[in-house]
Design a protein that fits this description.
The structure is a single chain. This protein has one domain: MetI-like fold (Orthogonal Bundle), CATH 1.10.3720. The two termini are 41 Å apart. With 263 residues, the protein is an all-alpha fold.
Length: 263
């Protein structure tokens, strides 16, 4: 009994450590005072100012476009990479190939950012939106590959592909009409995760953002130099709500993927 109570207090303390600061931040985003020192009343003016801030909204639009492009690239690459690893198990270097796909998860982002910057500068490639989108797709790739690869292993589908090819379909037609629909829940789930990771990335964007490209995390970093204002709190609350929404959608698609796999 004592052990159970101790574990309960430990878990409660852990959750308090993680989420109480978020609750405090949310509360002070409605504070009428300009500084987060004392509570002076309830207001929503910081959210109104947030919407009217053209530079902030522009950086948010840039991050949304960047995250969408990175998610699409990561999903496309993840689909073909997962299909190659699951359906074609005999090619040389398969294990090393799989390890390299997971490398961005374990590699320090600072090292990755410096390496990509050095490579692009050495290659003479301009640091534009396309370069940043490709870099974000690289750090998002393990999420799409992991989701799609797990889906392919769980649902099988090889017999259905073989049946389609026995009926006259080519391997590509069987992939498009049989395998791709089976993978779709995992593709959507992995893309949502990739979108979230790209949207909130700071380190890679900080190294590779060219002139005129200001993402939302970089903009928030520049705002934080002048202290934590209620406007920053309001923006953080909006981002937090969007993140929870995307994670909820991801969990829903993942559960659908699991249910259809069991069926």
């Amino acid at each position: 009994m004592k052990k159970g109570r101790g574990m309960m207090f430990y878990v409660a303390g852990l959750y308090a450590f993680l989420y109480v600061p978020l609750v405090v931040m949310t509360a002070f985003s409605f504070n009428d005072a300009h500084r987060n020192v004392v509570w002076r009343g309830f207001t929503v003016k910081w959210y109104v100012l947030l919407v009217k801030d053209a530079e902030l909204m522009g950086s948010m639009l840039t991050s949304l476009e960047l995250a969408a492009a990175a998610a699409v690239l990561a999903a496309a690459l993840g689909v073909f990479a997962s299909y190659a690893m699951v359906r074609h198990k005999a090619f040389r270097g398969r294990d090393g190939y799989a390890a390299l796909l997971d490398a961005p998860l374990m590699m320090p982002e600072v090292a990755l950012g410096v390496g990509l910057l050095a490579f692009l500068v050495r290659a003479g490639y301009e640091l534009d939106f396309g370069a940043l989108a490709c870099a974000h797709a690289l750090i998002c790739l393990p999420y799409t590959v992991g989701a799609v690869r797990a889906r392919l292993k769980s649902v099988g589908g090889e017999r259905l592909e073989e049946a389609a090819m026995d009926l006259g379909a080519t391997e590509w037609v069987a992939f498009v009409k049989v395998t791709l629909p089976l993978m779709m829940p995992a593709i959507v789930s992995g893309s949502l995760l990739a979108f979230t990771v790209s949207f909130e990335d700071f380190v890679t964007s900080f190294f590779l953002a060219g002139i005129g490209i200001v993402t939302l995390p970089i903009k928030i970093y520049s705002m934080m130099k002048f202290g934590v204002t209620p406007e920053v709190n309001a923006l953080s609350v909006v981002l937090l709500a969007a993140t929870f929404l995307l994670l909820g959608l991801n969990a829903w698609f993942a559960s659908r993927s699991g249910e259809s796999a069991r069926a």
